[in-house]
Amino acid sequence: MKSRTLYARMKVEDSIMANELAVASPEEQPTSIQRATAGPERLMQFLRDVRQEMRKVVTPTRAEVQSTTIVVIVTVFMFAAFFELVDLILGHSIDKIFAALIKH
């Protein structure tokens, strides 16, 4: 139930953010003086937004970190073995091709 309400709240916040990012018409564009004086307010709004987003961050547990680390290490070794096998096959094939070309 908690995840549903969190998802619904995130959806509402995303739609609000999308509405705020809508492109304004040219007559609504602020002048350079208005932009320069709005700097501190924009900074404060940015920091409020960062704080709000940081509240959504969930720190993984030790068990989650360990399990994902193991998955990454195993995957790296599997890819290393795959590329070693491909390298051996291609290297052997190229050697055979060169050997055949040299004989003629």
Compose a concise summary of this entry:
With 104 residues, the protein is mainly α. The chain contains four helices and no strands. Helix content is 80%, strand content 0%.
Description:
By secondary structure, the chain is an all-alpha fold. 80% of the residues lie in helices and 0% in strands.
Features:
single chain; 104 residues; mainly alpha; 80% helix; elongated
The SSE string, one letter per element, is: HHHH
Structural class: mainly alpha
Question: Quaternary status of these chains?
Answer: single chain
Mean pLDDT: 83
Give the beta-strand count.
0
Instruction: Identify the overall geometry.
Output: elongated
Can you count the helices?
4
Report how far the terminal alpha carbons are from each other: 75 Å
> Could you describe the largest sheet, including whether it forms a barrel?
none
Radius of gyration, taken over Cα atoms and rounded to an integer in Å? 28 Å
| Proportion of helical residues | over 70%
**Low-confidence segments, ≥5 residues, pLDDT <50?**
none
* Strand portion: under 5%
